[in-house]
C-alpha cells in the first residue's frame, strides 16, 4: 500500500530572514499591493530585469508566493517586522513614484502605500478620485486614507462629509461640513451650498429642522445655486413659506439636470401642499420619484423624496399611494442606511393606520433602533404608543411613553412630524401627563396657523385634537378642532370625512346616539384610511347607548370595521369553540379572562372586544361557574394559575 509523501513544512521565520536583499524587497512590493511584474520590480528596485525575474522565480519555487502571485499569509504577517518600518517606507515611496510617473497607480497599491504613512498630494488626490465613485461606506475609508497622506481640498472635505452622513456618522459629517463653513469668506458658493446641505441634513435627522432652515436663511438665495429647491423644501417644512418662495424664484437659472428637476418637483409639491390642493401636491411629489437618472449618485438630503411623498399621502388618507411609494423606495435602499430605516418606519406607520397591527409591530421590531437619530426615533416612539393604544396594552403604553421623554425634550416641531406628535399627544392625556407635551402641541398648532391652516397638514393635527378632547372628556375643547376641520372640508374630502366624524363624536359625548349618523361617520373613517378610528367611534357609541338594539347595531359596525385588520395577514377569523373539557374556557371566555386578570373593568373589556358590558358580565359569571370559583379574588387567582394575564397581547378579536 503506497503512502502519500508528507507535504513540505512551511518556511519559518528564519527562512524569511535568510532571503537576500533583492528577494526581500520583491516581497515588500507584494506586501504593498504590487503584482510581481519583473519590469515594475526592476524599475522600482533599480536592478536588471533578469535579476528581478530570477528573484521572483525563487520566491515562487520556495513557496513564498502562491499560484495567484500573492504573498502567502504567514509571511505577510511577519514581513513588515523583518523589513523594518524604515525600509517599508522607502519601498512605498519608490513604488508610488514609479506608478505616478507611469500613470499606472492602482487602488490596492494606493491603499497599501497610504497605510505606511507616506505623505503625497498625488496619492491623496488619487484616493479622493476613487472615493467619489465608491459606495458611501467604502468612500469613508478612502477619504480617511487620503486625509492621512495629504491635505484635502474643500471639495474632498465635503465629499468625505457626505459619505459619512450617508453612512450614518452624523457627528463626523457635520464636523467636516462646519470646518468648511468656518472659512466661508474664502470658500466658493458651490462648496458653501454643499456644506450647508450636509449640515442641514444632519440637523434634520436630529429633529431640529429650525436649525436646517436657519442654515439656508444664512446662505441666502444668491449663494444656494442648484440646491435652491432643497433649501425651499426645508423652509416650507419649517413653516417659512415666504422665504421658500423667494428662494424658488431665484433658482430659475439652475442647470436642468434630473437631480435638480427632481428636487424642484419636491419643493413645488410641498408649496402646493400648503397653498393649493392635495391632488396637485401629490402629483408633483410623485413625479419627482419617476425621473430617470436620479439615483446615479447618492446625495445626503434633509429627507428623502419618497419619505416626503409618503407622509403627504398619509396626511390625506391615501394609504395605498403611501405604500406603493415606500415599496418602490425600499427596492433601491441600501440595507441599514438612514433612508432605509426611514422608509421601513413609514411603512410600519401605514400598516398601523390601516389596522394591520401585527405587520406594523413586526416591521418595527426588525429595525436597529439604537442606530437611529431623533427624527426617526420620534416615529419609533409614536409607533410604540400607537400600537399599545390600539391593542389596549396599558403596561406597554406606559413603558413606551416613558421611553419617549428623551426625544420629546429635544425635538423641534415641523410639518413632517405631526403624526407621531399626535400619537404622543393622545398618550400624554391617557397617562395623565399632558403638561409634558403641551409646548410641542402648541408649537404644532402655531406652525399650521402660520402657514394658513393648510388642509393637507392641519387636518390630521385637528383630528388628533378631536380625539384628545374625547380622551380628556372635554367636549368644549373639541369644538375648535371640529370647526377647523369643517373649514378644511371645503377643499379636502379627507378633512370632510374627519369633520363629519368630529360632529358624530360630539353628539355621542352629549348623549345623542344616532345609529345612522354614527355608522355613516364610522364607515367614512374606514373609507378614508382610518378603520381603527371608525371602529372606536362605533364601539364607544355602543357603550354609551341605553337602548340594547342600538348598542347591538353599533357593535356590529365596530366588528365589521375591525375584521379586515384581524385577517390582514391571512389568518382565519377566530371562532368561538365550545370547551373541550370541564374547567376549560371557550375562546371568547379566554379573551375575557385575559383582560379581566389585567385589571380592566367590564366596560373597558367590552370596548376592546366590541361587546356590551352586560355581555361581559354574563361571560364572567359563566367562567366562575365553570371554574367553581367562590369569589372574585379566587376567580382571579385561578385564572392567573391557568396562565392568563402573562401576555401583553390583549388585541385578540
What does this protein look like?
- The protein is mainly alpha-helical and 653 residues long.
- Among the domains are: 203-251 and 258-298, no CATH class; 303-365; 366-375 and 387-562, Serine Threonine Protein Phosphatase 5, Tetratricopeptide repeat (Alpha Horseshoe); 587-642, Winged helix-like DNA-binding domain superfamily/Winged helix DNA-binding domain (Arc Repressor Mutant, subunit A, Orthogonal Bundle).
- The chain has 35 helices and no strands.
- Helix 3 (38-45) packs across helix 4 (49-61), helix 12 (189-205) packs antiparallel against helix 13 (209-219) and helix 33 packs across helix 34 (613-627).
- It is elongated and about 105 Å long.
**Secondary structure tally, helices:** 35
Helical content band: 55-70%
**CATH class categorisation of the domain at 366-375 and 387-562:** Mainly Alpha
Distance between the ends: 75 Å
Tell the overall outline: elongated
Give Rg in angstroms.
33 Å
CATH topology of the domain at 366-375 and 387-562: Serine Threonine Protein Phosphatase 5, Tetratricopeptide repeat
The CATH level-2 architecture of the domain at 366-375 and 387-562 is identified as Alpha Horseshoe
- How much of the sequence lies in strands comes to under 5%
* DSSP E strands, number: 0
The main sheet comes to: none
Q: State the secondary-structure class.
A: mainly alpha
Amino acid at each position: 500500500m503506497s503512502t502519500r509523501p508528507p507535504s513540505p513544512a512551511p518556511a519559518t521565520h528564519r527562512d524569511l530572514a535568510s532571503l537576500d536583499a533583492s528577494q526581500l524587497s520583491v516581497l515588500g512590493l507584494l506586501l504593498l499591493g504590487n503584482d510581481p511584474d519583473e519590469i515594475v520590480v526592476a524599475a522600482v528596485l533599480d536592478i536588471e530585469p533578469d535579476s528581478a525575474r530570477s528573484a521572483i522565480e525563487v520566491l515562487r519555487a520556495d513557496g513564498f508566493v502562491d499560484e495567484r502571485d500573492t504573498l502567502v499569509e504567514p509571511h505577510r504577517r511577519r514581513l513588515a517586522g523583518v523589513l523594518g518600518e524604515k525600509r517599508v517606507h522607502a519601498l512605498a515611496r519608490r513604488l508610488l513614484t514609479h506608478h505616478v510617473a507611469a500613470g499606472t497607480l492602482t487602488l490596492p497599491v494606493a491603499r497599501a502605500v497610504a497605510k505606511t504613512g507616506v505623505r503625497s498630494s498625488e496619492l491623496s488626490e488619487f484616493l479622493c478620485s476613487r472615493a467619489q465613485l465608491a459606495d458611501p461606506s467604502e468612500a469613508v475609508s478612502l477619504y480617511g486614507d487620503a486625509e492621512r497622506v495629504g491635505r484635502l481640498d474643500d471639495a474632498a472635505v465635503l465629499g468625505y462629509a457626505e459619505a459619512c452622513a450617508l453612512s450614518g456618522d452624523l457627528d463626523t459629517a457635520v464636523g467636516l461640513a462646519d470646518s468648511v463653513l468656518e472659512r466661508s469668506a474664502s470658500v466658493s458658493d458651490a462648496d458653501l451650498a454643499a456644506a450647508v446641505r450636509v449640515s442641514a441634513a444632519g440637523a434634520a435627522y436630529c429633529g431640529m429642522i429650525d436649525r436646517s432652515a436657519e442654515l439656508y436663511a444664512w446662505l441666502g438665495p444668491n449663494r444656494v445655486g442648484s440646491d435652491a429647491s432643497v433649501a425651499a423644501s426645508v423652509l416650507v417644512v419649517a413653516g417659512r413659506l415666504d422665504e421658500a418662495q423667494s428662494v424658488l424664484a431665484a433658482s430659475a437659472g439652475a442647470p436642468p439636470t434630473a437631480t435638480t428637476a427632481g428636487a424642484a418637483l419636491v419643493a413645488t409639491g410641498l408649496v402646493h401642499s400648503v397653498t393649493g390642493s392635495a391632488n396637485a401636491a401629490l402629483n408633483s411629489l410623485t413625479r419627482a420619484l419617476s425621473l430617470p437618472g436620479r439615483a446615479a449618485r447618492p446625495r445626503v438630503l434633509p429627507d428623502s423624496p419618497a419619505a416626503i411623498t409618503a407622509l403627504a399621502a398619509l396626511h390625506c388618507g391615501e394609504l395605498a399611494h403611501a405604500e406603493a411609494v415606500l415599496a418602490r423606495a425600499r427596492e433601491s435602499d441600501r440595507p441599514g442606511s438612514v433612508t432605509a430605516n426611514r422608509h421601513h418606519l413609514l411603512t410600519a406607520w401605514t400598516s398601523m393606520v390601516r389596522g394591520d397591527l401585527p405587520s406594523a409591530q413586526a416591521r418595527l421590531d426588525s429595525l436597529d433602533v439604537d442606530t437611529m437619530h431623533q427624527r426617526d426615533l420620534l416615529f419609533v416612539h409614536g409607533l410604540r404608543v400607537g400600537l399599545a393604544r390600539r391593542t389596549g396594552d396599558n403596561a406597554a403604553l406606559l413603558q413606551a411613553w416613558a421611553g419617549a421623554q428623551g426625544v420629546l425634550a429635544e425635538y423641534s416641531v415641523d410639518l413632517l412630524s405631526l403624526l407621531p406628535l399626535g400619537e404622543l399627544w393622545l398618550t400624554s392625556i391617557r397617562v395623565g401627563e399632558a403638561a409634558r407635551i403641551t409646548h410641542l402641541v402648541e408649537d404644532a398648532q402655531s406652525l399650521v396657523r402660520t402657514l394658513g391652516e393648510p388642509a393637507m397638514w392641519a387636518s390630521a393635527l385637528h383630528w388628533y385634537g378631536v380625539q384628545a378632547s374625547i380622551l380628556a372628556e372635554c367636549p368644549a375643547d373639541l369644538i375648535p378642532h371640529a370647526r377647523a376641520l369643517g373649514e378644511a372640508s371645503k377643499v379636502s374630502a379627507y378633512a370632510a370625512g374627519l369633520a363629519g366624524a368630529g360632529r358624530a363624536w360630539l353628539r355621542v359625548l352629549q348623549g345623542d346616539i344616532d345609529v345612522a349618523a354614527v355608522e355613516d361617520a364610522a364607515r367614512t373613517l374606514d373609507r378614508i384610511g382610518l378603520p381603527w378610528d371608525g371602529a372606536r367611534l362605533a364601539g364607544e357609541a355602543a357603550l354609551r347607548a341605553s337602548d340594547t338594539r342600538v348598542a347591538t347595531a353599533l357593535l356590529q359596525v365596530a366588528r365589521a370595521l375591525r375584521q379586515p385588520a384581524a385577517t390582514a395577514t391571512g389568518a382565519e377569523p377566530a371562532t368561538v369553540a365550545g370547551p373541550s373539557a370541564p374547567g376549560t374556557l371557550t375562546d371568547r371566555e379566554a379573551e375575557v379572562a385575559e383582560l379581566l386578570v389585567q385589571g380592566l373593568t367590564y366596560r373597558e373589556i367590552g370596548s376592546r372586544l366590541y361587546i356590551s358590558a352586560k355581555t361581559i358580565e354574563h361571560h364572567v359569571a359563566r367562567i366562575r361557574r365553570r371554574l367553581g370559583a367562590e369569589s372574585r379574588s379566587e376567580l382571579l387567582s385561578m385564572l392567573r394559575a391557568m396562565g392568563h394575564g402573562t401576555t401583553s397581547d390583549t388585541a385578540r378579536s
